[in-house]
Amino acid sequence: MSTEKSRLMKAWEWHEQRLPIGHFLDHSLGSKYPAPKNLNYWWNFGSLALFMLVTMIITGVFLAMNYTAHVTLAFSSVERIMRDVNNGWLIRYMHANGASFFFIVVYIHIFRGLYYGSYKPPREVLWWMGVVIYLLMMATAFMGYVLPWGQMSFWGATVITNLFSAIPAVGDAIVTLLWGGFSVDNPTLNRFFALHYLLPFVIVGVVFIHIWALHIPGSNNPLGIDAAPADKIPFFPYYVAKDVFGLGVFLMAYFAVVFWLPNAMGHPLNYVPANPMVTPPHIVPEWYYLPFYAILRAIPDKLLGVVAMFGSILILFVLPWLDRHPVRSATFRPIFKIFFWIFLANAVLLGYCGSQAAEGWPLIASRIGTFWYFFHFIVLLPLLSWIETPKPLPASISQPVLSPAE
Amino acid sequence: MANTAHAHAAAAQGETRRDFLLHSTVAVGAVGTAMMVWPLINSMNPAADTLALASTEFSIAGVAEGSGITVVWRGKPVFVRHRTAAEIEQAKKDDTADLRDPATDAKRAQKPAYLILVGVCTHLGCIPLGMKTGEPRGDFGGFFCPCHGSHYDTSGRIRKGPAPLNLAVPPYQYISDTTVRVG
Q1: Do A80 and B39 touch (CB under 8 A)?
Q2: ipTM score of the complex?
Q3: Residue B165: CB partners within 8 Å, gap ≥ 6?
């Protein structure tokens, strides 16, 4: 062994010279990828998001084997999956709750980026790709929710596609095009299924670009300062082990919901077959859209409401130029830190308002929340970029540990 | 420090705490993955509603001697042939012939008059000819598979051609004199 390489090693090297897949992985997520040594647990959520993407694709492929994309059969084919298909209940609950957990993970991942300034130079393109992934996820999740063809599926599809009717002049034509008819109907369901199957693979592609863009500057870190080579440790084994541990904890939470609270995050009305003649009295989107739904309803104008809703996400693209403060991490920005938590609380408030009927105090609160959402991005962040004095930054990641302040 | 000393002692014997952690982590991961892979694969097996349709009943009252009917069982054709005396005679005589898949006619037909077979060629799954009048019935007067030329005799036994086995006899029972349940 010590002097002579095993046949297996020789075969592996032969293959590596022709297709260096091991080399590629080692540089991507292995021992040749140095990562800052001070990453905390908030940095686990990138790999968790990747795990959820893979889980969704695998469970989705098996669901598709038993799903029928036709208005007369879709609902009963889903019920057949629940009742008759071997372990169908498990696969469907993993997929339905997987969507929620994917969003939970991604929201934490996004807010981590917001807190530690991961969108700032030189990571703007990395951030853009993340926003693109997020938009694709929202489109994919929306179309997936339509597939069971329950009441919420149908009316959610109706409401969301009608958003495009707000576009002046061509709005109605666009909506008719999206529907493939004069209402949400079988052609709509068919194309939504086709796109719901396609988009996850588009997401995989953008994830590759996202990780590629990550590898150019390397990971940000809780201090937000550039990590010197001496302050980096190889991704494998250190962060692989840490990610695996985090995955174990995450799986416990995920499967606790899959097994014991599988419908907690769904709406009971989606177990009523779609009826194009009856709109449910109170329709709500899935929880992960609620803040944006609140923004939509906060503005008493159809076009402006839609513009504000899409704008609330698209504004993330220009975030690196709204927040031009040279210090990345909120750890050293006391004022920004306060407003970060206010922003987070505001997002949660908007989410709550989105779940309530658009009247009374939730409507007023969603108007204040909408104002604050844009005020934070358009006024506060540029202003803080000018006036906020940061705390002194450490010279390196090791410095605060090696030479503790007095 | 006691732990460290212990670890060093263990390391000298080639076993470390880290090895233990690594191996147990990999083992838990492998078992967990297998526990997830199996439900996914098993979901591709027949579902409960498919299994619920696994038996079928039919009447043989109207099947005249020398003719037959084809019924559907599990999505496959089942041949029910009312044999003539000459065919039964031939089938019994062939019990001692040189058979590729030896079986006596008595074992293949509960009532000699009615031959009940899965009408799927054991070569590659085509439906053999011979149930309808005028169809070729092969060199042995039973069934002939046109796909690759397998010849079956009047008991549905393979006699010539590439098929390895006799036409299968499905599990069936006579519920009454004229009613049969397959499956």
Answers
A1: no
A2: 0.84
A3: B100, B101, B122, B158
